[in-house]
Design a protein that fits this description.
248 residues; T-fold; 8-stranded antiparallel sheet; 31% helix; globular; ApbE-like_sf; UPF0280
């Protein structure tokens, strides 16, 4: 088990929460919980939750390697574990491969487990977030070289949560994208779905002329509650997305 740091995480931490990082193989999480709930025992328990999440996924991929390599919707075996089925369903709805939902699926699994011990939980996995909150929070949007980067935030209210807030970019990060969006943010109660739809929507954006088409695509997917797309100096929004300025 490793404790690692990503520089962008410092900018988005919540002052009322304790944040800690856990890395188990490829999974690298930033976890925020209520201060009174934080203990070293909880950290060890959370690391075990990550291992419990990864184990059935890794075992399934050994049995059905096509699941991990497919870039299109994939039919899984009838006895597939629940996390595999949730990833496959998210990929089917978004029209992409199931691994497009892996970061969101892990964030959700870990977040829901920790939510049994802390009323406020934020789990961030490479830009994909599970959030449950008892207070209004702001999620800042990093959009690479766009002039809109770090200028706006999405307001998240308690009654919207638990919520997935997932980001895809054709310019930032290591995740596969066929598009050139600076940032695509998708909101959904299903974190795997938000993750997969963010990827699929980002694939559609090559120029600012594609913003309307991208919004039209994502907004018709059942379970999506909000969308934000940034390309260069243009921004498009749909659904339950309240934008707030970030003060310099």
């Amino acid at each position: 088990m490793d404790f690692t740091e990503r520089s962008y995480r410092q900018d988005h931490r919540q002052e009322d929460l304790v944040h800690f990082q856990l890395a188990v193989r490829e999974t690298d999480l930033d976890i925020g919980i209520r201060k009174e709930r934080f203990t070293s025992e909880l950290v060890e328990w959370a690391a075990e939750i990550i291992r419990d999440c990864r184990r059935p996924l890794e075992d399934y991929i050994q049995k059905d390697p096509g699941f991990a390599s497919s870039l299109t919707p994939y039919t899984v075996l009838p006895d597939a574990p629940i996390i595999v089925k949730r990833m496959a369903e998210a990929g089917r709805l978004a029209g992409v491969g199931p691994m497009a939902a892996v970061a969101g699926a892990v964030a959700e699994w870990v977040g829901k487990s920790i939510a049994k011990r802390s009323r406020d939980v934020i789990v961030e996995n490479g830009g994909d977030i599970f959030m449950r909150t008892s207070r209004i929070r702001k999620v800042g949007i990093f959009a690479g070289d766009s002039p809109l980067s770090n200028l706006v935030a999405i307001e998240i209210r308690p009654n919207q949560t638990p919520l997935g807030i997932c980001t895809s970019s054709g310019k930032v990060g290591h995740s596969l994208s066929y598009g050139k969006a600076d940032a695509v943010v998708v909101l959904s109660p299903s974190v795997p779905l938000a993750d997969a739809v963010a990827t699929a929507t980002g694939n559609l954006v090559q120029t600012t002329d594609d913003l309307e088409r991208a919004i039209a695509f994502a907004s018709q997917i059942e379970g999506v509650t909000g969308i934000l797309v940034i390309k260069d100096d243009r921004l498009a929004v749909w659904g339950s997305v309240k934008l707030l300025p970030i003060k310099a």
